[in-house]
Amino acid sequence: MKAFRTVAVALAMCAAASSASAAPILDTAGVATAVTFAAPYGYRHDILDHGYFAGGNIAGAILSVWLNDPNRGSEIVNVTIGIGNQLFTPGGNNDVSNGNGSETRVDIPLNGTSLADLMLDGLIDVTMGTNPGGDYTFLRSSLAYEPAVITPVDGGRVPEPFTLGLMGIGLAGLGFASRRKN
């Protein structure tokens, strides 16, 4: 009976593990830097060091940048992402919180071209810029991405619930057979 319980627990653990889904993974990049029209700031997110392999699949990604404006000016934030040059400009004439140490967070979902760029080699380049006369401080950046869970379709295999049920019937038969011998 103890062996039967051990097998049942092992089967339950396998079933639970196979139904787990991938959780979002976070990569951080960049160094606090002043950004002006004459001096844009570029940096790179590298997700290869988080277990991603080049050519893998990603369900979606969001780039978040934190900014500050210690000079209390008016500026427009321009963010250029990837080889497809996905351009993001939040809009308005004063995109960054002025003074008092407050931070502005900007979240940018990656479009299809930028996502394809990221999946190609696990790297994505980002350039922060502003309008003439504008300036702000880039504080940090994070890239949250979710690996795609792809289940291959194979018509020749027996579906898992049926296989587990069949295995359970077989184990029950073994249990009854060993009981009958005793």
From TrEMBL:
InterPro entries reported in the protein's UniProt record: Ice-binding_C
Ice-binding protein C-terminal domain boundaries: 158-180
Swiss-Prot/TrEMBL keywords: Signal
Listed name of the protein: PEP-CTERM sorting domain-containing protein
Provenance organism: Massilia cavernae
Pfam families xref list: PEP-CTERM
Highest taxon, organism lineage: Bacteria
Upper taxonomic lineage: Bacteria, Pseudomonadati, Pseudomonadota, Betaproteobacteria, Burkholderiales
Signal listed as a keyword: yes
Signal peptide: 1-22
Keyword Nucleotidyltransferase: no
